[in-house]
């Protein structure tokens, strides 16, 4: 029996760092043909053409005229909607857009409305942490009712020191900075688990730098993780230390999300002293128990007063695919692509970071920044 033809993929835009991860995963798949890539920045495009065995196209319009099934869209955020619609209008069966997908929620809502013209199109957003082992565990614990009546929940997210200065997290004319671009991983997880909140109250702040002991200016802090622009190989600005308050957007954020039955509290910082995800915590409290977890390296446990929903009394620890304490980040990207391909190629309904969750997330982000600006609770409709 002959093998099915390979799934043909085009890569529109390459300015987000997740382009590299996904391109490598796609190259390693035996069922996939990468038709080519296009990137607006000619310097970056030439560099990629030298590094990757992928054909470069000089024009996005030339690329979408090729026969393809799926488009992966990885530009800077302002160009996500345009490229998504370009691919959809040229027959794409599937779109994977890098998050958050647009520079403002209104642009995302407009894109979603336009995509309704393609009812068979499968759309996924690049929230790879949606596929983390800890998320599977927490989703099941909450949805099966093992915790009893949930009363409150606390989540934490952010970026390592330096991450908020990355080029894709300090773009001009966007709604916000690290919270909008990357802290929203945590908000995506919250709306995935609990749905859309009734209302939101938030503080989104730039902080004031503390004076250094030497009186030579503000106290600076070492970069833990930062790609100012990983494509150039140089830092911009040329420093490995900088001060609180120097970012163009927020340093911290605190959010209360009100649901009919419980509250969720989330806090965020652009100044974590640890690497990516290591302190992205999840805590959910109910009348029968509590679950505590970290997204990556994955770690989760639930403690129940009484056995319920298949979980025993006392402590149950989540089994992990890799040894305890070892990152499984690449596994989450891979799982996302595997399930996305199943949805597009096989028509299988799977867990997904799809349109419904994306719209809910953008409604929450819109309300958060509005609440912080107007200093009040904002209802979500």
From TrEMBL:
InterPro entries: Gfo/Idh/MocA-like_OxRdtase_N, Gfo/Idh/MocA_Oxidoreductases, GFO_IDH_MocA-like_dom, NAD(P)-bd_dom_sf. Residues 138-291 form the GFO/IDH/MocA-like oxidoreductase domain. Residues 24-118 form the Gfo/Idh/MocA-like oxidoreductase N-terminal domain. Transmembrane segments: none annotated. SUPFAM superfamilies: Glyceraldehyde-3-phosphate dehydrogenase-like, C-terminal domain, NAD(P)-binding Rossmann-fold domains. GO terms for molecular function: nucleotide binding. It holds the Pfam family GFO_IDH_MocA_C3. Signal peptide: none annotated. Belongs to the Gfo/Idh/MocA family. This is Gfo/Idh/MocA-like oxidoreductase C-terminal domain-containing protein. It comes from Exophiala spinifera.
């Amino acid at each position: 029996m002959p093998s099915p033809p390979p799934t043909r993929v085009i890569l529109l835009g390459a300015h987000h760092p997740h382009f590299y991860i996904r391109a490598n995963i796609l190259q390693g798949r035996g069922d996939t043909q990468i038709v080519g890539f296009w990137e607006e920045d000619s310097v970056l495009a030439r560099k990629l053409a030298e590094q990757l065995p992928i054909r470069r196209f000089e024009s996005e319009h030339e690329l979408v005229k090729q026969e393809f099934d799926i488009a992966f869209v990885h530009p800077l955020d302002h160009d996500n909607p345009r490229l998504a619609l370009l691919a959809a209008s040229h027959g794409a069966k599937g779109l994977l857009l890098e998050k958050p997908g647009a520079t403002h929620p209104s642009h995302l809502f407009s894109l979603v409305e336009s995509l309704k013209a393609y009812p068979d199109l499968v759309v996924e957003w690049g929230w790879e942490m949606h596929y983390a082992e800890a998320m599977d565990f927490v989703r099941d614990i909450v949805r099966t009712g093992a915790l009893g009546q949930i009363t409150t929940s606390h989540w934490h997210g952010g970026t390592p020191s330096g991450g908020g200065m990355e080029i894709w997290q300090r773009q001009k004319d966007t709604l916000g900075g690290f919270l909008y671009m990357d802290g929203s991983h945590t908000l995506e997880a919250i709306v995935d688990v609990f749905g859309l909140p009734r209302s939101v109250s938030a503080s989104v702040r730039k902080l004031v730098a503390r004076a250094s002991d030497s009186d030579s200016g503000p106290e600076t802090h070492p970069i833990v993780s930062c790609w100012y622009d990983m494509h150039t190989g140089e830092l911009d600005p040329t420093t490995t230390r900088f001060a609180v308050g120097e970012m163009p957007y927020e340093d911290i954020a605190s959010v209360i999300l009100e649901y009919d039955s419980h509250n969720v509290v989330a806090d965020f910082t652009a100044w974590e002293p640890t690497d990516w995800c290591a302190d992205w915590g999840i805590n959910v409290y109910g009348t029968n128990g509590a679950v505590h977890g970290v997204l990556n390296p994955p770690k989760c446990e639930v403690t129940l007063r009484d056995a319920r929903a298949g979980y025993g009394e006392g402590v149950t620890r989540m089994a992990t695919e890799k040894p305890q304490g070892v990152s499984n980040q690449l596994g989450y990207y891979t799982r996302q692509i595997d399930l996305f391909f199943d949805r597009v190629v096989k028509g299988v309904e799977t867990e997904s970071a799809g349109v419904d969750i994306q719209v809910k997330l953008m409604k929450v982000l819109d309300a958060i920044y509005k609440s912080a600006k107007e200093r009040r609770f904002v209802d979500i409709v």
